[in-house]
Amino acid sequence: MYIDEHWAKNHILVTSRELLDWQHKNLDTGDYNFVMARHNKSGEICGVLGFIPTSHFSAELESEKEIWLAIWKVNEGPKYIGLGLGLLNFLKREFSIKNICSIGISQIVFPMYETLGFTVGKMNQLALLNNTLSDYRIAKVPETFTSSIGQKNDQYKVVDIAKDQVASALSDSDLYINKTQKDGQYFITRFLEHPKFEYRFLGVYNKDKLESFLVVRVVALSESSTMRVVDIQGDLPSISRVTANLHELLVTEGHEYLDIMQYGMDEESLVDAGFLQVETDGELIIPDYFQPFVQKNIPIYFARQSQESEQSFVLFKGDADQDRP
């Protein structure tokens, strides 16, 4: 298989047909969401470009014409120069793409993306530490670090939404005010029906109204665990009003921290509310790689292009193909 031979040996999309089908197979056509280049004479595969439309998880999002790039690989050598760009142009033309984003890119390809008119940048990581712990095994927390958590706001609460209640709780269209455009069905298919990972939905309620929700995944390592936020929808500023609630959840369940890998949120208000900014070369280590585990900070860069005159957009760890085995 091309991915196994040219991209990564024993890649998860090679070893797990279940994950490959869930992430890339178009159930309507039976085709896979990959663009492929073949040699005219030999038929040899010369390059592939994988993509994930938001409509893959909700047909109602088809009009958005938004895709996330996944595996992008062409054969090495002078005769293949320009083939990768050819795959991208074919994809954009054939599927009339309006919005396109790639997460997890190398800084080496920044100039290429910028030349193509993409916005490039770095996702930023924020962490809410369980400050009742004296020993961290997943995170590396210098003794000089302190985090201050404010008092609870009695008007707000954080509720673990039961799986059988997710569909009804997430049905309010007012929750989906951010770009990339998503909807309730997207979150059900993308997270509740994931073939490998278990996700939870934490609802942020102002009295009895759901203002926002966080999609989280608990990651365990030996006898320690963390809570990773992979997506947030709704009124994003409301997250800074419930840090005391989230911290209480960390303490109750014994997690070391909760972290958010994102771009586009109001980081200043989150820091004021008790989150810590994680710097790539900083002393505070909040790992991103768990399979296998690597105790270091990993920078994640992105490139995004839109035909729409959008003023802002928000990215999260659960976008594209970032949060997968």
What order do the helices and strands come in, and which of them pair?
Layout: H1 2-7, H2 12-15, H3 17-24, E1 34-38, E2 45-53, E3 66-74, H4 83-94, E4 99-105, H5 110-115, E5 119-129, E6 156-161, H6 166-169, H7 184-192, E7 200-206, E8 209-221, E9 224-234, H8 243-253, E10 257-263, H9 267-272, E11 276-278, E12 289-290, E13 293-294, E14 300-306, E15 315-316
Parallel strand pairs: 3-4, 9-10
Antiparallel strand pairs: 1-2, 2-3, 4-14, 5-10, 5-11, 5-14, 6-7, 7-8, 8-9, 10-15, 12-13
Offer a few descriptive terms.
325 residues; alpha+beta; 13-stranded mixed β-sheet; 9 helices; 20% helix; globular
Structure in a nutshell:
With 325 residues, this protein is α+β, with helices and mostly antiparallel strands. Helix content is 20%, strand content 31%.
Folded structure, characterized:
The chain has 325 residues and is α+β, with helices and mostly antiparallel strands. 20% of the residues lie in helices and 31% in strands. Strands 1, 2, 3, 4, 5, 6, 7, 8, 9, 10, 11, 14 and 15 form a 13-stranded mixed β-sheet that branches. The protein has a two-stranded antiparallel ribbon with strand order 12-13. It is globular and about 70 Å long. The chain starts with a helix and ends in a 9-residue tail after the last strand. The mean pLDDT is 93.
